[in-house]
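Re-run with default settings, no changes from the original entry. Doing this only to confirm the output is reproducible before filing.
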Amino acid sequence: MAIHEREYYSSELVASNFFQLLNSDKDDTLHKISEREIQFLKYCPTELTLKEIAQKMKVSTSTVQGYRNMLFDKLNLKTRQGLAIFAVRSGIVSFEDL
């Protein structure tokens, strides 16, 4: 159909480029995150406290708080719930892991 018939243009190529852009943004974001921060993200959707996460990661509570704060900055988020949602959406954590 022509643009004048639908009043908008839709193309698989445009949609494909859009989704590639979304995925590249996700990949760029994941490249900014350290392995230890990813490990911390895996615990975010759990009921564990920061102290319990620190024990599991074998680091101090302040180190875990540092991971959390760095992720807040890198991902422009404000809460642990936001980190948990990011972890699930980005595939770091799957529903089977929960």
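Residues 14 and 62 are 46 Å apart (CA to CA). The two ends are 46 Å apart (CA to CA).
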